[in-house]
Amino acid sequence: QKEVEQDPGPLSVPEGAIVSLNCTYSNSAFQYFMWYRQYSRKGPELLMYTYSSGNKEDGRFTAQVDKSSKYISLFIRDSQPSDSATYLCAMSREYGNKLVFGAGTILRVKS
Amino acid sequence: DTEVTQTPKHLVMGMTNKKSLKCEQHMGHRAMYWYKQKAKKPPELMFVYSYEKLSINESVPSRFSPECPNSSLLNLHLHALQPEDSALYLCASSQVGRQVQETQYFGPGTRLLVL
User: Among A95, B34, B52, B90, which lies 20 to 30 A Cα-Cα from B75?
Assistant: First the structure.
């Protein structure tokens, strides 16, 4: 079993839809949770980060962490074709700097 | 400024060549990382430097040799690579510390092709 599970997709949605991206994990030691967006042939770009459980909102993006269920989500409101990319969840333990990534979900927003 | 820069953007090398990848950040981060990413896969950690000292080597073959000359620079020296080493090589940096959120910021990567 992988430490972090993420459905690779692809996920296709119409423009304007609400997108829900999710990851589950098995290690309760994870404390920091991040979402990265990666366009084709580019480096990952940090979108959101959350420490421990809770919600965080930034513009059209909302990140949720439920540590009791070992489940994290990223919601994108009013999705745009420019949101088409691969979305990687990542997490790390409280001590040490090693990030563990999910496989990445390919998102396609159609106009 | 949350920018990590990497040079070159693209590199083609033969199996007998020696080349170097360079990474630079000016965010005052004291941890720097090298990752390897194959197509349609997540980044795989190779090395971590913390305060200019190598702290993690993920059992990377010796044909990859990292170097951290100072707190802003990170190099990856390449020698006698194999075609299967072709990938996107990503550099990242972050703050270090217990109470500090350890978000890593990535550079755009160097796309390496080994012939």
Answer: A95
In chain B, which residues have their Cβ closer than 8 Å to the Cβ of A8?
40
Q: Do B48 and A98 touch (CB under 8 A)?
A: yes
- Give the distance, in angstroms, between the CA of residue A96 and the centroid of all CA atoms in the same chain: 21
Q: What is the mean pLDDT of chain A?
A: 92
Strands B110-114 and B87-94: antiparallel
Please write the tens of the pLDDT for every residue from B46-83. 999 989 999 889 999 999 999 999 999 999 999 999 99
Distance CA(B112)–CA(B115), nearest Å, equals 10
Residue A12 one-letter amino acid:
S
Answer whether B31 sits within 8 Å of A36, measured CB to CB: no
Number of Cβ atoms within 10 Å of the Cβ of B109? 26
Residue in B91, B102, B110 to test binding to A, most A beta-carbons within 10 Å: B102
